[in-house]
DNA sequence: ACCTCCCCGGAAAGCGGTTGCCCAGTCTTG
DNA sequence: CAAGACTGGGCAACCGCTTTCCGGGGAGGT
């Protein structure tokens, strides 16, 4: 392991000079010494020890991102947006995946605190359990107390900078669009009852439907993933239009209908939420609410890095995208 | 920022004792002192500074993963597998995305070396440019010279532990299966010419076709992504069966045919490679070569962590999965 | 010719932990 | 009961780098 000292010795200069040459400094170093140091470093294959730099400088150039599941394209897109933004700032990214375990999320915040990362981004839905949220919040406070910055994508209930997708409004807008096509009997594949994102989307949808004076949608709960959508789709009764609270579930629902010989959109219309890029070529093309996921990720990083006294909440609107998975029944 | 010293002072013990209580050690500490330290740490909200620990211990508990693109489900699955394995070992993961820029890949290796990560996993196809590969290799050697471990998913040309999907054999097996269905006129959406993974899959396919005495497939190059597949599909001539060297391209090709009114599989059969989970509900269901991506990711981590004198190369076979996107023309 | 100021090099004090070593007290054990 | 074996606590020397402060020497001013 070659250290700065080795380089300095080989170059015949002091540690200070070598440090100034190799790792940036306001101070100038004479051209000849500078060249000597650079040559020595190159010959020896020197790489600065970042742990030492972090310790000495008291600040690291790493940020942390905590997501539920990288194989879920929703989080992948979010993470990618944040990582591009981070790369633009010269920051490295440390990623944690919780696989939807809130305890893991708390543990990751603690770990990233220990890493003294510059900022932590929490992506993914909060759960409604106040006890868990409280513990997470305490852990975040502890981190912020020592100078850490935090931003969150999802619900605004941690008292930190947040990029909040308009889940409720998106659900409502979608409901109005679908009703506009003449649908009256709706069902919602609502995901887990405690997951805020799922709940808000569902609630917005249901509220809008009722506001239009239409019959209350049947709400079917289940897991938030493809298989959850598949299973829940079996219980949509006589609804002519089904809203799955995310695209991945919607795709599961489509598969379920296909397997059972139910035609989409002829027999039943299906809509999702998120507009996942990987799923855009699905047949039938999925009606959905588009969220600018990559932008949301990079925006979250911006928020975290900006000084911000009082927490900013960025509401981002979704855009209803009507595609062939829904039928105009007027 | 609360330090160990603060905790020690508050607990009225020495630094050494506090360290032994809080950050594990072979040495025992008396029950009363232990309790005092723990209480103090909790009251103060102490979190060990990992940079300091890394420096003092001379080893970090972080591993690095370098992928091309997280939003590509292939890499997401690989990364997820590796991350699960890492979590099982109590390791944290630092992720770098190169967006297919080989220079970025080299830069990330340098950075992760600086971070003194325990191991680096390089996922994603190597390119055939020997100059770039040489520089990457030198950077890796530099890292390994200082005790770093490296494993790679893809081609075995860096002289490190490698998980090598049998791209050539997979392509060949697929060709034989398709020929077995009676197809004779093939085309290959071959991706970029310099990308090893794409090249191997294509080469295996072409070789098997020729070995069967069938006419040489038409090979169309283009980008390795969805749009590349879409564009290339326009140039498949009179082929009755088209092999896209990955699933994402295949989906692009399907979209292209759909847009042009070419029916799949009636007019043309389409096959991909990888068996991406997110795409399994695609219609028509994609014939492909299944790769156990998550396993490959975790296996790569294992290889990297194992002591291994001479580099191990793990060949992983793909499995042809016939689905509706190909037609039996016998 | 002298003084000041600036520029650049080096010595050394941290940054926040870990751990080898010494030491006092308590336990065995012959 | 003396002597060796443990136990558990603390001191202090690092780990590799940054940065403050000090000093020497050359340039510029008078």
Question: What does this molecule look like?
Answer:
2 copies of one chain form a homodimer. With 330 residues, chain A is α/β, with parallel strands linked by helices. The first copy, chain A, has 3 domains: 4-48, 434 Repressor (Amino-terminal Domain); 60-165 and 294-316, Response regulator (Rossmann fold), CATH 3.40.50.2300; 167-291, 3-Layer(aba) Sandwich (Rossmann fold), CATH 3.40.50.2300. Chain A contains 12 helices and 12 strands. In chain A, the strands form 3 sheets. Chain A has a 6-stranded parallel sheet, sandwiched between helices. In chain A, strands 7-6-8-9 form a 4-stranded parallel sheet, sandwiched between helices. In chain A, strand 8 (241-244), helix 11 and strand 9 form a beta-alpha-beta unit. The termini of chain A are far apart. The structure holds a DNA duplex (30 and 30 nucleotides). Chains A, B: It holds the Pfam family Peripla_BP_3. Chains A, B: Residues 2-57 form the HTH lacI-type domain. Chains A, B: It comes from Nonomuraea rhodomycinica. Chains A, B: InterPro entries: HTH_LacI (IPR000843), LacI/GalR-like_sensor (IPR046335), Lambda_DNA-bd_dom_sf (IPR010982), Peripla_BP_I (IPR028082). Chains A, B: This is LacI family DNA-binding transcriptional regulator.
């Amino acid at each position: 392991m070659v250290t700065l000292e080795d380089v300095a010795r080989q170059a015949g200069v002091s540690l200070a000079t070598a440090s100034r040459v190799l790792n940036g400094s306001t101070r100038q170093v004479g051209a000849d010494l500078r060249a000597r140091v650079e040559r020595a470093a190159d010959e020896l294959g020197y790489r600065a020890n970042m742990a030492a730099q972090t310790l000495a400088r008291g600040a690291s150039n790493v940020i942390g991102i905590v997501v539920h599941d990288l194989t879920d394209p929703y989080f992948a897109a979010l993470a990618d947006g944040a990582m591009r933004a981070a790369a633009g700032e010269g920051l490295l990214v440390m990623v944690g995946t919780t696989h939807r375990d809130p305890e893991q999320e708390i543990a990751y915040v603690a770990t990233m605190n220990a890493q003294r990362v510059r900022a932590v981004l929490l992506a993914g839905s909060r759960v409604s359990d106040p006890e868990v949220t409280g513990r997470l919040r305490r852990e975040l406070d502890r981190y912020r107390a020592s100078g850490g910055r935090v931003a969150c994508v999802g619900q605004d209930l941690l008292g930190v900078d947040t990029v909040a997708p308009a889940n409720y409004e998106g659900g409502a807008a979608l409901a109005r669009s679908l009703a506009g096509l003449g649908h009256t009997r709706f069902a919602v594949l609502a995901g887990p009852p405690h997951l805020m994102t799922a709940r808000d989307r569902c609630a917005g949808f249901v509220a809008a439907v009722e506001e239009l004076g239409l019959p209350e949608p049947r709400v079917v709960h289940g897991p938030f993933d493809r298989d959850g959508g598949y299973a829940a789709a079996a219980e949509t009764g006589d609804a002519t239009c089904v809203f799955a609270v995310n695209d991945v579930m919607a795709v599961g629902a489509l598969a379920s209908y296909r397997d059972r010989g139910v035609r989409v959109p002829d027999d039943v219309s299906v809509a999702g939420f998120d507009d996942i890029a990987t799923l855009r070529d699905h047949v039938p093309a999925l009606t959905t609410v588009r969220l600018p996921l990559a932008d949301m990720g990079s925006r979250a990083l911006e928020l975290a890095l900006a000084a911000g006294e009082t927490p900013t909440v960025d509401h981002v609107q979704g855009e209803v995208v009507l595609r062939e998975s829904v039928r105009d029944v007027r």
